[in-house]
Amino acid sequence: MPDTPPISPPGAVSMSTLPRPAPGDRMNRGAVLWVTLAVFAQEAVWNFYDAQVPEQLRHYFSSAGVVGLIMGLDHSWGIFTQPSVGFLSDKLARRRTGRWPIVLIGAAVAAVPFVLIPWATNLPTLLVCVVGFAAIANAFKGVTETLVSDYVAPSNRSKAQGFIKAGVSLTIVVSSLISLLVADRSLRLAFAIPPLLMLIMLGLSWAFLGRHHTDVLLPDEEGEGAKAAPEQEFASPWAVLKGALRSPSSPTLLLMVGIFCFAGMWSALRSLMTPYGTQVLGLTRGEAAGLALPGAVAFLVCVLPIAYASNRFGQLRAMRYGVGLFIAGLLLGFTMPTVPGTITSMVLCSLGYTSFAVNALVALWNLAPTQKVLGTYTTLYTIASASGMALGPAILGTTIDLTRWRYMHLNAAVFAAVTFLVFTRLVRRAPDRATDRATDRAAA
């Protein structure tokens, strides 16, 4: 049976139904495609949000630290909402509708405050729209990212993440193009396009994948692992968090610290790049937002090669190399405060972040004691990354207030150097033992 390719039962096959994958099967590319589209849909909105909302806030605040703090609030909501919502989605995962109702309803509700952001004529209204969108969108963000674990076997999840991140990189391209082509002409229209695209693409993902959830869902076969820790299947996310951090020999805590640091600096750089372009480079708002476009293209071109190369280096080492490249890009941006220099800097930083984006969640999943708690371990990733994204823009913005916008890249490089030290210690303490096991399974 293990050597026999899966064959759908007679009478159960239709043109619109994807075949159910079996454990150890080849990666279900159809499922990965539609999960990628779902993640793309939500990330397109977030990328445009990060590019344009800081400029909206600058109408009311002159302090970069305050702007960064408010921008960080969008990610802080995930610390409180995603664990509970993710735990609920785990209970729904094996039912007929799966996790999809949480994603679809959340997206429809979050679109309303997002569209209203450019219509806000005073600070209280703007803050209500910004915080409202952030709270709702963060609630289902982690659920969308966990969809891939429902349809792709553990041995293929690293490859699947590479394809998903390749799709996500296009969201930066879409966001940059909307900023370049629409934002300077009609800001209200520009804010209406991303949520419309999100609803359309999520609808397509549900129609071709979510509607056939039970047909494509991985069989509930965990073997001995399911019998080894049955109580963990329904444990609260906080109980799993305590178990993961209680063991002094576990590298989980250190990996979470590394995720916190890198996610924070990337979020800070991305959130404050548009004001940097207008303040230092003398660009218009739309032109400054478009600085991320070349980096997005570089991400798209290199994400799959980096994902496959990570299988040789190991996820932890690959992330360490990525941090080093990220620092090099920041130092280049500081020494060359011009448009070409900034674009080159963003390309290098994007390539460094690519290695992190592809490997971070997979490395954390590989540290899970059982496949039954992958959803909860996604929550651990959320806590670490959301905390970093919440504090990163405020920290970097405060250093800009203390120095000048001209020193933004140098300030970020100092914090990134701390991140490099964290990953260096992590590699020495846990030299990809977990990731090597996952790689061996993927190569088998």
UniProtKB/TrEMBL annotation:
GO MF: transmembrane transporter activity
Pfam families: MFS_1
PROSITE patterns in the record: MFS
Keywords: Cell membrane, Membrane, Transmembrane, Transmembrane helix
Locations listed in the record: Cell membrane
Taxonomic superkingdom: Bacteria
Protein name: Major facilitator superfamily MFS_1
